[in-house]
Structure formats: structure tokens, C-alpha cells
């Protein structure tokens, strides 16, 4: 796994040096403009029950339809947003668009399931975040309990008490909290216990080589056991094959997410495939 991470990192680095300073600057100012009009889009990926047949919830994943470059995925612009100090605004834009979709779906009688929204490290450091969430939901007459939030282990590393308070306020407002990409970051297990998480998402790097890789089997099995022991639910990310699904079902994983079911879909495609009767 260390090797795989190393490779990801160098790929990221290569694409970064390929992107000239000039085009990076252009992308930054275009992103700034786009955020002014909430111009980013959100795609939805289904999260299925343990049998892989029933929709449980959906993860909202940001996309950018760039006028010249076409659809951009987060890996192509989150770095730019981060270094430009735009992550809080980007997160607000995603939330506004998710809540507008939720309302539209409700009004059209094709209600969305619980939506899981990724929060950045930058967002969970801002004391006003819970108020922002409440306000954006209120504007759409939407209960905060229709949302779930995902934070990575690395996002909850520093300033423990401040972040803890912000996360608790989100939970008090009604949202559930999941720890994302579990097993790849640098947090301690005690934070799972002390922060108000109700769900663990197993990183897809552990799921990839199931059931052939003994180490990945052992790690995944122990994360499922950890979740069970702590009374948390557990989701496997990156479920791509029938073999993944069968193994995870047998080991008692609660929910499944991955290309086996669907790639992230534009709102209207998601609605017609999963929310229409
Ligand atoms: P993540 O939160 O772990 O999201 C899951 C990523 O895995 C998504 O990539 C999804 O398309 C991809 N994925 C899902 N199933 C499979 C599969 O079976 N196989 C493979 N190979 N990949 C799969 P995406 O949409 O490119 O997002 C990448 C990351 O960008 C996310 O990882 C998340 O960390 C970040 N991100 C996405 N949207 C947002 C957002 O609105 N706010 C913030 N702060 N971060 C976001
Ligand atoms: Mg996520
Ligand atoms: Mg994840
Ligand atoms: Mg991941």
C-alpha cells in the first residue's frame, strides 16, 4: 500500500509540473469567478445496502464543467482551490448546490436519499461552519438530518477541541458523520471514539485486491470488526466486482459503494435511475 501511495503522489506531482504556472493562474482566477455564481456542479454516486440491491444514500462529488477544458474532476482543481485559499467557498458552493438539488427533487416528487457531503480540512476549522450548514438547509426548507458529512482522518489531526466542537454542532443540528478513506491517514483510533462519528468508510485501496491479497483481507476484516465493536456502521468504497461484493457481504460489511453499482452521475441521471417510481 505504501508503494501505491507513493505512485499516486508522483503522478500528482508530474501533473502539477506539467501544468504551467500560467495555466495554473488562469485556472485559479476562473475558479474564483465560477464560485461567485455557484458554478460548480455536483454528481451523485449511490451507496447500496449490503446486498448491493437497495439504494441507501448517495455521495455528492464536486465537478467543474470548464468552458474550454470540459468536465474536470476534483483531482484536477482541488489543489488549485486549496493553494488559492478557496476551499471554504468551494465547500459552501457544493452545499448550496446539494441543497438546491434536494429541494428540486422533493418538489418533483422524486426525493433524494440521505446525501453524504465531503468536508475539507479547511472547512472543519471554521467555527461558522455549523451555522452556514443550518442556514443553507433552512433556505431550502430542508432538515439538516438529510445530510451526512465525510471527513478524512487527516482533516481531524490538529486543533482537536476546536474541530471536535464544530463536528459536534453538526451532529446536534441533525447530520451524521462519517470518517472517510479510513486506514490511509494519520489520525489515532482514539479520535474515532471521542468524535461523534457514526460511520466508517474503508478506503478503496484496501478493497481493490480483495479477496486475493491476504493483508488487505486482514485489514478490511479488522476495520469491519472495529466498526462493529464501536457501534458504527461501515461502508466499503471502490467495490468494483462481484468477488468484492460477495466477500464483503460474507464478512458483514453494512454498505457498498463503487463502480460495480454506478459511477458518480449527474443529478438528472441519478434521479431517473434511483429516485423515480
Ligand atoms: P472520496 O470522498 O473518497 O470519494 C470517492 C472517490 O472515489 C470519487 O472520486 C469516486 O468517483 C471514486 N470512486 C468511487 N467508486 C469507485 C470505484 O469503484 N473505483 C474507483 N477507482 N474509484 C471509485 P472523485 O469524485 O474523483 O473524488 C475524489 C476525491 O475528491 C474524493 O474522494 C474527495 O476526497 C474529494 N472530493 C470530491 N468532492 C468533494 C467536495 O465536494 N468537497 C471536498 N472537500 N472534497 C471533495
Ligand atoms: Mg468521500
Ligand atoms: Mg472516500
Ligand atoms: Mg477515497
Automatic annotation (TrEMBL):
Superkingdom: Bacteria
The EAL domain, residue ranges: 24-277
UniProt protein name: Sensor domain-containing phosphodiesterase
Included range, full protein: 342 to 618 of 618
Amino acid at each position: 500500500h505504501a508503494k501505491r501511495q507513493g505512485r499516486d503522489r508522483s503522478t500528482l506531482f508530474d501533473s502539477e509540473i506539467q501544468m504551467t504556472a500560467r495555466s495554473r493562474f488562469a485556472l485559479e482566477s476562473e475558479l474564483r469567478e465560477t464560485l461567485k455564481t455557484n458554478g460548480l456542479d455536483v454528481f451523485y454516486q449511490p451507496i447500496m445496502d449490503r446486498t448491493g440491491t437497495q439504494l441507501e444514500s448517495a455521495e455528492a462529488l464536486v465537478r467543474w464543467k470548464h468552458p474550454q477544458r470540459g468536465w474536470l474532476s476534483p483531482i484536477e482543481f482541488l489543489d488549485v482551490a486549496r493553494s488559492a485559499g478557496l476551499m471554504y467557498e468551494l465547500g459552501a458552493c457544493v452545499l448550496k448546490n446539494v441543497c438546491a438539488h434536494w429541494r428540486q427533487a422533493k418538489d418533483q416528487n422524486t426525493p433524494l436519499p440521505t446525501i453524504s457531503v465531503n468536508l475539507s480540512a479547511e472547512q472543519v476549522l471554521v467555527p461558522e461552519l455549523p451555522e452556514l450548514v443550518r442556514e443553507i438547509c433552512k433556505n431550502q426548507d430542508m432538515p439538516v438530518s438529510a445530510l451526512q458529512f465525510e471527513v478524512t482522518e487527516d482533516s481531524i489531526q490538529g486543533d482537536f477541541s476546536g474541530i471536535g466542537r464544530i463536528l459536534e454542532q453538526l451532529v446536534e443540528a441533525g447530520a451524521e458523520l462519517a470518517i472517510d478513506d479510513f486506514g490511509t491517514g494519520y489520525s489515532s483510533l482514539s479520535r474515532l471514539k471521542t468524535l461523534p462519528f457514526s460511520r466508517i468508510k474503508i478506503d478503496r485501496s484496501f478493497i481493490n485486491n480483495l479477496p486475493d491479497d491476504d493483508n488487505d483481507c486482514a485489514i478490511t476484516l479488522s476495520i469491519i470488526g472495529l466498526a462493529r465493536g464501536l457501534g458504527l456502521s461501515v461502508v466499503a468504497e471502490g467495490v468494483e466486482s462481484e468477488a468484492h461484493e460477495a466477500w464483503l457481504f460474507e464478512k458483514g460489511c453494512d454498505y457498498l459503494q463503487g463502480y460495480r453499482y454506478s459511477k458518480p452521475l449527474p443529478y438528472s441521471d441519478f434521479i431517473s435511475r434511483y429516485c423515480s417510481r
